[in-house]
Amino acid sequence: MPQQWTLSGDYVEACNCDVACQCVWLEPPDDDVCTVSLAWHIRDGNYGDVDLSNLSVGMLISTQEGVMFDPETGWDVVLLVDETADDDQREAIEDIYFGRAGGIWEPVADTHVESAEVASVPIEFSRDGDEFAVEIGDAVSMEAHGAVGFNEEVGTITPHPLTKSLEVQTGKSTTATVSYGDEFDWDVAENNAYLGDFELANS
Q1: What is the C-alpha to C-alpha distance for residues 178 and 114, in angstroms, rounded to an integer?
Q2: 134 and 142 in contact (C-beta within 8 Å)?
Q3: Distances (CA, A) of 190 to 15, 129, 168, 175
Q4: pLDDT digits over 167-192, tens only?
Q5: CA-atom Rg of the chain in angstroms
Q6: Euclidean distance between CA atoms 20 and 125, whole angstroms
Q7: Cβ distance 24 to 157 under 8 Å?
Q8: Percent of the chain that is helix, strand, coil (3-state, to 5)
Q9: Where would a tag sit more exposed on the chain, N or C end, judged by fewer CB atoms within 10 A?
Q10: C-alpha dihedral, 94 to 97 to 98 to 102, nearest 10°
Q11: For the segment 135-173, what is each residue's pLDDT rounded down to a tens digit?
Q12: What would the mean pLDDT of 125-138 be, rounded to a whole number?
């Protein structure tokens, strides 16, 4: 039986769409495919009795053509787990992000994921307000900042599925390179980023 889990902390993603990515409105992405890197720094988290605080997680997604969240659109996924995680923590993260423990990732795994792999890698994640920087081994380099509107405030977008509030900040990447095998190899800098706080749970 899956353990109860909760995660909260900092989140950033960088994809190939112009600002702002239209996937949240169930529209096709630019170029009709989505290539996106996502990263979470878990400030507070647990999976049953397993403490996940102060770990980071990355994910790479490459989709088939079509609307990303259309049930017919398949995804290839790589989960990148903080190398500082012990065996119990790594297993917990895999259970959560591969949808085996309920929550938002369960319907994603059941509906979209056609191939998935996992790697243990060093992850450096830093945040200063709306400025984010992530380095994941040799696979991911990502820097992004909030996109400020005419009111001199960072914009927000909703509904975004990867946080309880359904709201994240709009942003733009300055660096967004991925190099992990042939399929996960792209540079989508100067395009869309979503960023901010996140909170997820399976209950």
Answers
A1: 20
A2: yes
A3: 9, 19, 18, 7
A4: 999 999 999 999 999 889 999 999 99
A5: 16
A6: 23
A7: yes
A8: 10, 50, 35
A9: N
A10: 110
A11: 999 999 999 999 998 899 999 999 999 999 999 999 999
A12: 98
